[in-house]
Amino acid sequence: MEPKKYPLPPFNMETAQQKVQAAEDAWNTRDPEKVSLAYTIDTEWRNRTDFINGREEVKQFLKSKWEKELDYKLKKELWGFKDNRMAVRFEYEWHDHSGQWYRSYGNELWEFDENGYMQKRFASINDLPIAETDRKLV
Length: 138
Known about the structure:
Elements (H helix, E strand, L loop, with lengths): L12 H15 L4 H5 L2 E9 L2 E4 L1 H14 L1 E13 L2 E11 L5 E12 L5 E13 L8
Organism: Mucilaginibacter rigui
InterPro entries: DUF1348, NTF2-like_dom_sf
Pfam families: DUF1348
């Protein structure tokens, strides 16, 4: 049995914001192993058009993502929560191997188990090509 991943649901404003900040901090490490540990072993994801099932697939997905999305920097914001669910908006910036920068915008719906691990993550994301001088998340 894995240790509890605090804070636990049901969330209040303070604990919901803590959970969002913890996710932002983890994703900004760009460490697939570390990030994957926030999710249940059998987590379900939809990321754009990818359907990902289980922590091992999450690790592989993130490894591939950060091999493509270089110098990734993310900012998340809580939009709402109830019980064990949250809605989060985010934006992140990255560049590809050719040097083209992008700002990616999106929304996520999260659902947590009773031990504080995310069991469902559904993300809708759009990419906007930007000039390096237009970056906001430095």
